[in-house]
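Allow me, if you will, to draw on your knowledge of protein folds for a short while. I have a record of one protein: its chain in single-letter code and its fold written as discrete structure tokens. Could you please explain, in whatever detail you think fit, how the structure tokens follow from the sequence? The record follows directly beneath this note:
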Amino acid sequence: MLSFTGIKKAYRLGARAAIVLIPSAFIAKEEMMRRFTVCFVVGLLLFAGSVFAQGGGTPAKAKATAPEIPFDSVPNFFKLPAGLYMGEGVGVATNSKGHVFVYTRSGETRLFEFDQNGAFVKEFGAGSYGVSFAHAVRVDKDDNVWAVDEGSNMIMKFNPEGKILMVLGKRPEPLEQLSLTPGGGQYSGANKPYSFHRQTDVAWDPQQNVFVSDGYGDSRVVKYDKNGRFIKAVGTRGDGPLQFSTPHAIAVDAKGMVYVADRGNSRIVVLDNDLNQKAVYDHVGAPWAVCISNTPHQYLYSSNSFPTGNNFDQAPTTGEVYKMELDGTVLGRFGKAGHGFKEFSSIHQMDCRNPDELYVAEITAYRVQKILLRPQSTRSSGGK
């Protein structure tokens, strides 16, 4: 009988990873196992495409009438140290000083800080048990940095110096991880108070309560108090009231209203602070990313992102970002799908602290762009 050594071999296809346990007797046959593992990962990726809906494909209802907002992209804004490169642009956020935080997947998941001029400052969480497969990064009102990691099922709160202050969620044990491999896995619907199933984003209300969109393996929104104590969770999988299909991002406004990017259902679901459904915005395509400006008059932005499968038949109907009032009224749109400069290739997260200065993380272009809007006299498109 073979005894497992517990040696983990991680093989990567692009930036996706699978972890397998290999018997000690098989290590000499590493090449055979490598080929098997690559086939296994390909199967998971193909399976995942049908399970976790990306939405989109049809034109957003607001696209035809929304005025275009002129914009510029700042070339070569981020300066990484020699030998260090940007992987998949998965998460981006800013703090009160204008510093930019980028959560990226490459050979490994890494969280970088840049100053307001794009110069590299430092890395957060290097070697941390909670860093596995990045999904989003946010910064709260006290400039604490929150890393949402779907691979470890954990959310880590760092202070501005990089010290971990709090952790939500629990990393699965190695054998459990096999069925939860990023890019694969299955729907759980477990709805447990203190564990996640590939959660996607985090946000806060003015009282510092914490809201989590969870995510791929669950279809719910979870509310905690500022100390991480569970308050409430709502949501099941579906397309009805208080149902979600891949809640992919989340934002909270100054009044405590919660905006959920229900990507698979191509809609934004608006909840009150007690997680009761109040409105649905289904006119801006499939929202991969949402953010709300940190200004007295707040604006809501939503990205109808070009899907990650490089399905260029969908390029004419995806790729644009919408600027809205909080009631869903569209004020304008900007951008289009593509891999070129001033084009957007699968925007995965946005930061819009300043409503005319946005950062967009693009998963299939391996980059983050700094976007400067040049809005003219803003007019409503006349509907939601």
